[in-house]
Amino acid sequence: MPFSPVARIVGAHGLKGYLKLALLTDYPERLAQGERLRMDGEWVTVRATANHQDRLLVQLEGVRDRTKAEALRGKTLEAQEIKPELANDEFMVRDLIGCAVVTTGGQQLGHVDEVLPYPAQDILVVGATLIPFVKEFVKDVDLAERRLTVDPIPGMVSEAEAVE
Questions:
Q1: What are the pLDDT digits (tens) for 91-149?
Q2: Positive or negative, the Cα torsion across 106, 109, 111, 112?
Q3: The whole model's pTM is what?
Q4: Strand 100-103 vs strand 18-23: parallel, antiparallel, or unpaired?
Q5: Residues 7 and 73 in one domain
Q6: Is residue 46 part of a domain?
Q7: Phi, psi of 47 (to 5 degrees)
Q8: Among 19, 48, 80, where does a domain finish?
Q9: Domain termination residue (choose one: 36, 52, 80)
Q10: Is 58 exposed, middle or buried (0-12, 13-18, 19+ CB in 10 A)?
Q11: How many Cα atoms occupy the beta-carbon half-sphere of 146 within 13 Å?
């Protein structure tokens, strides 16, 4: 049963064991009271939630004081992976990682190493090349073949970066 990271614990809040979280999901309801999550391979249950200065706080069963909460700093909370319904032009970021990237002219650029979330659009990291994930540059995404076809503008990709 696969799991996805939903939050990273960044600190403790107050004296009752609340944890400050950095969300790693677009679905914060996955951290609602009563939800079962995984942390270090063990199941934990969300006892209570609160918001403080636009940050989600959770209290886990068995964590009732600041000392126990501080000991969890840096840990990741995971939830069972869900497969949302996606339109034909929508993709999960994790499905793009590792895909081969070729130009419309057939030049191999490498593989998607990372997808950076920027406000205007996501950015594909292919080696040292950064490619905005927009229709002007990304012409085709073939997840079955694990290949992205891009049409870079002059100067976006140096000849030294292309894979022979």
A1: 888 889 999 999 999 999 999 999 998 888 999 999 999 999 999 999 999 998 999 99
A2: negative
A3: 0.57
A4: unpaired
A5: yes
A6: yes
A7: -85, -40
A8: 80
A9: 80
A10: buried
A11: 9
